Amino acid sequence: MCPDQTDSLLTRRHVLGSAMAAGLVAASGFDLPASASPAIHAATPRPLPRKGKSMSFITTKDGAEIFYKDWGTGPVVMFSHGWPLNADAWEDQLFALASNGYRVIAHDRRGHGRSSQTWNGNDMDTYADDLAALVEALDVHDVTHVGHSTGGGEVTRYIGRHGCARVKRAVLVSAIPPTMLKTAANPDGLPIEVFDGLRRDLLADRSQFYRDLAEPFYGANRPGAKVSQGVKDAFWQQSMMAGLKGAHDCIKQFSETLFHEDLKKFEIPTLLIHGDDDQIVPIDDAARKSVKLIKNATLKVYPGAPHGLPATHREEVIADLLAFLRT
User: Fold this and answer.
1) In angstroms, rounded to a whole number, what is the distance separating the alpha carbons of residues 59 and 312?
2) What is the pLDDT of residues 41-96, one digit of tens each?
3) 278 is catalytic
4) Half-sphere exposure of 199 (CA within 13 A, CB side)
């Protein structure tokens, strides 16, 4: 257990010369040159009984309604999704784990999916506080938290802000920590112009932007890739459920948030899973750095794998989750 804390993340027109983040840079429309802190929200659950309910909501202190699905019985595993998706992105893993004796809970981040599309509060601290509100509302303990991409950042900030009193394990899949943005302290990151390009293209034509983003997200732009149209359609459908304001604000959160100090507060077993052909969150600037900051972490690399592992490598992810849960 780590100490309890309360103080305390593509190919349209341009191609990045470096293999690192080629898909993300391309969708941003940027050619590389050569050379928030709101108050913690407490949960006020709706008066809905858990028994017999597979989907429900909690209401946070600021009035946002957070949608969640709650399946199965047994040890608790909670899932945090990537941008700009929602809890449905985890359904293969939810079904498999619930069928194997686990209680699985997955929520839609505020601004995404079926949760409230708030104008304010679309920041990493509030995402983490919303997760804490859900944990407290459901009164769950010894939780394994699983986060993909931006969801991995949400889990990381949750541990940084709220500690590990209720946490048993963590799994970070294709996750954004420790940081994505290029700075003097992080010269391997992506320049701000890349993320400015994402914001520009999102505002210009978000529907087409999401269709384009699905290609590098799942590695469908690679020779010989076998990614079904259905997988890409599901990505578009979930993305279009995100509110424009929440999706726009989230770009700053996944690109600029610093997670180094949060990662140092992990004192629970942690599994990092990352593909070495991730075009969205390149492994060298993410998992390979995070594993050095977490005390008890293991990195599993999927050779040739893209960013959207819960869909493209669903069976491998399920097997690795089950094996980790059983240790």
Assistant:
1) 33
2) 444 444 343 334 455 999 999 999 999 999 999 999 999 999 999 999 999 999 99
3) yes
4) 16
Q: Which of 199, 183, 170 lies closest to 285 in space, CA to CA?
A: 183
Q: Catalytic annotation on 307? A: yes
Write the DSSP symbol of residue 4: P
Instruction: Identify the CA nearest to 28 among candidates 43, 46, 41, 15.
Output: 15
Tokens of 62: 């600021």
pLDDT tens per residue, range 60-71? 999 999 999 999
Catalytic-role residue among 149, 174, 239, 255: 149
Largest CA distance in the chain: 59
* Half-sphere exposure for 190 (CA within 13 Å, toward CB): 39
Q: List the catalytic residue out of 212, 278, 285, 320.
A: 278
Sign of CA dihedral 146, 151, 156, 157: negative
| Torsion angle (degrees, nearest 10) of CA 59, 65, 67, 73 | 0
85 Cβ contact list (under 8 Å, min separation 6): 112, 113, 235, 238, 239, 242
Q: What is the bridge-based pairing of β-strands 65-71 and 103-107?
A: antiparallel
